[in-house]
Amino acid sequence: MSKTTDATVDEDGWLDLPCPVAVKTGLILACPPSWLAAGKAQILDHHALIAINRRIARLRTSGMMPMVTTLKTIYRTHAVLCRHDPKGNRVELPPRVRAAFSPLPAPVTITPEDGHLTLRATPR
User: Fold this and answer.
1) Taking the CB of the first residue and of the last residue of the chain, which one, N or C, has fewer CB atoms within 10 A?
2) pLDDT, tens digit, for every residue of 42-96?
3) Do residues 120 and 112 touch, judged by C-beta distance below 8 A?
4) pTM for this structure?
5) Which residues, including other chains, have CB under 8 Å from residue 67's CB and lie 6 or more apart?
6) What is the DSSP secondary-structure string of the chain?
């Protein structure tokens, strides 16, 4: 069962995270245009990114190239490295995500799923 948390993207584009995340250099935000149009994005920490890369490698060796292409498009082509503030446990969203969730401040829901955080715009 997923635990959904309500949050707010503030005027400067920062989002407070509901749980601690594993961060080496920054958080990865997967945000293909179709997801942004639907008001959705995924936040990947270091461990989730490793799991995605392993899944892509495993599917590549099993011959599932259409799935590999889809995953690479979502998690590599449309992924953005975001700044993370460890003291406040928050992440700065890139301009295209801020535009998708505008006007700011914007209410969002965060759901932990399979090691990543799914971010969805809350209907106003």
Assistant:
1) N
2) 998 888 888 999 999 999 999 899 999 999 999 989 999 999 998 988 999 999 9
3) no
4) 0.82
5) 59
6) ----EEEEE-TTSEEE-SS----SS-EEEE--HHHHHTTEEEEE-HHHHHHHHHHHHHHHHTT-HHHHHHHHIIIIITEEEE-EETTTTEEEPPHHHHHHTPSSSEEEEEEEETTEEEEEEPP-
* Ordered structural domains, the chain, with CATH: 5-16+23-121 (3.40.1550.20)
| Spatial CB neighbours of 58, under 8 Å, sequence gap ≥ 6 | none
